[in-house]
Specification:
The protein has 404 residues and is of the alpha+beta class. 44% of the residues lie in helices and 14% in strands. It folds into two domains: 152 residues, no CATH class; 210 residues, Aminoglycoside phosphotransferase (APH), C-terminal lobe (Aminoglycoside 3'-phosphotransferase, Chain: A, domain 2), CATH 3.90.1200. Helix 5 packs parallel to helix 11, helix 7 runs antiparallel to helix 9 and helix 9 runs parallel beside helix 13. It is globular. The chain starts with a helix and ends in a 34-residue tail after the last helix.
Length: 404
């Protein structure tokens, strides 16, 4: 099967995975709308067969046999296939639930193109081994197998809930988990790069340039004051970065946030190493600090600074002071990234963008004062205190861009 949409659709019909639809794509020019339905994706043609329960049964039987995972354990006679994440051209996740739960557990399948799955499998496996030795009780989800023919990495099912869910009602248990997250991240940053293998290099300048480019698409035209504030913030970030002490890059998670730390019955677990890279370790630290701002504002909860301090108390012992300063800079930059991801259709789009940028300004001002510099007056006035909590209605994040 090639990557032609018509061929993929025909293949889906033959496999019986197109139902209840007779076609998987449609164009409605009068509404400027294009509709595409799973399992259609020209970049991931294997999605069709990976949605076929018969192929899934054969796939998992082969994976278990090849890796000799519990060879004497009876295997399910079949699986129910459910799409979990369908992002055409980008990524896909499927859940394989055994029809007979007594004979096996749920398996998740993540699809990759261009052989990227081999890198993810290697990194996730090495991280699992490293944390088992150095994570002080924090582990990671280790993949079951990588099947090159299907471009898929298979993961065991995970019970529990992400840390982000527990932040709805933060207490001592959450505080301890944040501290352990810091300990685990410190251990990750000591993972020898030779074990992780070749990884892309992440640079601060490239991160800022990417955010500036993406934010310039629509925000300046629709909300000029916020567009100007974003430009000023990113200029300040570049200037401050040049003033701060630097250190060699390390292995980093690359997307270290509360959604990727699970509170499981066996203890905290880290997931999703798809974005792992060689970078300034402050990148991971700042990303979680910004993520905590997001969730504490989303749930309208007090105690943000205490939560950040507990995370840093686990991470910071032995960390260079310059790294923690750069982490605050990354925190501000990541808050700008969150702002530009607010969905345009959200009826609170204006206030959500302004709130995110004001928070970024507050972080930047704190950093400037720490460095003995004069804090720059905010270009969006009305947000001077980092202890501010959102007074709007509580809201559930919509994608990665929601705010308070």
């Amino acid at each position: 099967m090639g990557d032609d949409p018509a061929e993929i659709q025909a293949e889906a019909l033959r496999h019986g995975v197109a139902a209840p639809f007779r076609q998987l794509t449609a164009d409605l020019p009068e509404w400027s709308m294009h509709i595409q339905v799973s399992p259609l994706d020209s970049r991931f043609p294997q999605l069709v067969r990976l949605s076929d329960p018969q192929h899934v049964s054969d796939l998992l039987a082969g994976a278990y046999a090849a890796d000799d995972v519990a060879p004497d354990q009876p295997r399910p006679g079949g699986y129910a296939v459910t799409p979990v994440s369908y992002h055409p051209g980008q990524r896909h996740v499927l859940r394989y639930a055994p029809l007979d739960a007594a004979k096996g557990g749920t398996v998740f399948a993540k699809l990759y193109a261009d052989g990227e799955g081999a890198r993810v499998f290697r990194v996730a496996t090495q991280v699992g081994k490293w944390l088992a030795q150095h994570g002080e009780g924090v582990t990671s989800v280790r993949p079951l197998a990588y099947v090159a023919e299907d471009g898929v990495v298979l993961y065991p099912g995970l019970s529990g809930a992400p840390l982000s869910e527990h932040l709805r009602r933060p207490g001592q248990g959450v505080a301890r988990c944040l501290e352990r997250a810091g300990v685990a991240l410190r251990a990750l940053h000591h993972l020898p790069q030779a074990k992780a293998g070749p990884l892309r290099r992440h640079l601060f300048a490239a991160e800022v340039s990417e955010i500036a480019q993406e934010a310039s698409d629509h925000i300046p035209a629709l909300l000029p004051s916020v567009g100007a504030a974003i430009g000023a913030l990113l200029d300040r970030a570049r200037e401050l970065h040049d003033r701060l002490p630097q250190e060699p890059p390390t292995f980093t998670h690359g997307d270290f946030k509360s959604e990727h730390m699970w509170i499981a019955p066996g203890g905290p677990m880290l997931i999703d190493f798809d974005s792992s890279c060689v970078a300034d370790p402050a990148y991971d630290v700042g990303k979680l600090l910004a993520d905590l701002q997001l969730w504490y504002a989303t749930y309208d909860q007090p105690g943000l600074e205490h939560a950040q301090e507990r995370f840093l108390s686990g991470y910071a012992p032995g960390a260079p002071e310059g790294r923690l300063l750069r982490a605050r800079l990354y925190e501000a930059v990541e808050l700008v990234k969150i702002a530009r991801r607010v969905p345009l259709f959200d009826h609170d789009w204006v206030s959500l963008n302004e709130q995110a940028i004001r928070r970024a300004q507050a972080v930047m001002n704190d950093l400037e004062r720490t460095l003995g510099l004069s804090a720059t007056p905010p270009s969006l006035p009305g947000f001077q205190n980092r202890r501010h909590t959102c007074s709007k209605r509580r809201r559930q994040p919509s994608g990665k861009g929601a705010w308070c």
